[in-house]
Automatic annotation (TrEMBL):
It comes from Thermanaerothrix solaris. Its cofactor is FMNH2. This is Chorismate synthase. Coiled coil: none annotated. The lineage of its organism: Bacteria, Bacillati, Chloroflexota, Anaerolineae, Anaerolineales. Belongs to the chorismate synthase family.
Length: 369
């Protein structure tokens, strides 16, 4: 079983993760992990914070001579913004934030943990934590790559701009998305998305959207139909929904399928010329009965608009009980492109876990055998 834990605050010294259960003998390419971190930091519409941070991963254990040993990996990413907080933080001089910000974890967290200050809540609820998750996902991708399984993504919608996705094999769409500042494989729609972000910024507003993550070359039979928590779609849904601000997911075009008759939805099975079977459609998004069916796995996720808007929301000061507006410092206008990279990391993690479960083995060699 693969598992990982993360720790760290958004403006604290660093983010940490411990990854347990990786097979021994897996070559780890640090540059490729750092490339994923760079991809997550990109994207049109992000705040000044992304100019401060330059995420690089350090591996502190579990890897010797660039190869996993089978022991837990401890990994670390520095928060460069820490120097701007360190003195006040260490001397206990940070002003309490007594007005919870709507759309954030602040209100529920303050009640739950009996705090008159939202800071301890926002520090951990922040999506800054996804930096280290992307590093974890990058390691999962390196395990999957040993079995030719690849994961990629693109952005399908920002605000009301819905991209027309060209009909091309996924790897081509991924490289076209990579060349776009909003990770949209359709350049014309990508420009419209950027204009929508500019307009939101001008109006002191924010945007959400939809991204799609896909995995190709996934063997048949990851996950299982036999028990609720072994179903691959359930595991993917949980991983995707764990990303901050993700509020909906679908496997394949699930919400469109819901309105169609069964004859137009289910992917018929045909004999191919080599005596095997093939399918010409993938409306199931690569999963039937909680198991991968050999088709690409296709997951869409809906991200709500960024909660902190330049136009103030109404709230209440929990200390004096008066109506108030929360403190505004800075905020992303749109983070859907970054979220799509985080979605890749989470899908890669779930698939690596399911693959290891299916193949077994303590070393890469055993897994391959
Ligand atoms: C990559 C990324 C960047 C984000 N940046 C911001 C931001 O700058 N400002 C903000 O208010 N919310 C931002 N969010 C969303 C909040 O973290 C999230 O809405 C909040 O923690 C509440 O969690 P929930 O939306 O899952 O309920 C970001 C989310 C992601 C995935
Ligand atoms: C730091 C990152 O994203 C942050 C996520 C975030 C939030 O509330 O989730 C708020 C912003 O941070 P700050 O509170 O410092 O302005 C974003 O910049 C990152 O993605 O690395």
């Amino acid at each position: 079983m693969l598992r990982f834990l993360t720790a760290g605050e958004s403006h604290g010294p660093c983010l940490l993760a411990i990854i347990e259960g990786l097979p021994a003998g897996l070559p780890i390419d640090l540059d490729r992990i750092n490339l994923e971190l760079l991809r997550r930091q990109g994207g049109y519409g992000r705040s000044h914070r992304m100019k401060i941070e330059q995420d690089r991963v350090e591996i502190l254990s579990g890897v010797i001579n660039k190869i996993t040993t089978g022991a837990p990996l401890a990994i670390r990413i520095e928060n460069r913004d820490w120097v701007n907080w360190k003195d006040k933080w260490e001397q206990g001089l940070l002003e309490p934030l007594t007005v919870p910000r709507p759309g954030h974890a602040d209100y529920a967290g303050m009640i739950k943990y009996r705090l008159n200050d939202a800071r301890p809540i926002l520090e951990r609820a922040s999506a800054r934590e996804t930096a280290v998750r992307v590093a974890v996902g990058a390691i999962a991708k390196q395990l999957l790559a040993q079995f030719d399984i690849m994961v990629g993504s693109y952005v399908c919608q920002i605000g009301t701009v819905v991209a027309r996705i060209p009909l091309r094999p996924y790897p081509e769409l991924w490289s076209e998305a990579e060349a776009s500042e909003v990770r949209c494989p359709n350049p014309e729609d990508g420009e419209r998305m950027k204009l929508a972000i500019d307009e939101a910024r001008r109006k002191k507003d924010t945007l959400g959207g939809v991204f799609e993550v896909q995995a190709i070359n996934v063997p048949v039979g990851l996950g299982s139909h036999v028990h609720w928590d072994r179903r691959l779609d359930a595991r993917i849904a949980m991983a995707m929904m764990s990303i901050q601000a993700i509020k909906g997911i679908e496997i394949g075009p699930a919400f469109e399928n819901a309105g169609l008759p069964g004859t137009q939805v289910h992917d018929d099975i045909f004999l191919d010329s080599k005596g095997g079977v093939t399918r010409f459609t993938n409306r199931a998004g690569g999963i039937e009965g909680g198991m991968s069916n050999g088709n690409p796995i296709v997951v869409r996720a809906a991200m709500k608009p960024i909660a902190t808007t330049g136009t103030p929301h109404q709230s209440v000061d929990v200390v004096n009980g008066r109506a108030a507006t929360p403190v505004y410092q800075r905020s992303d206008i749109c983070a859907v492109p970054a979220a799509s990279v985080i979605g890749e990391a989470m899908l890669a993690w779930v698939l690596a876990d399911a693959l290891l479960e299916k193949l077994g083995g303590d070393s890469l060699e055993e897994m391959k055998r």
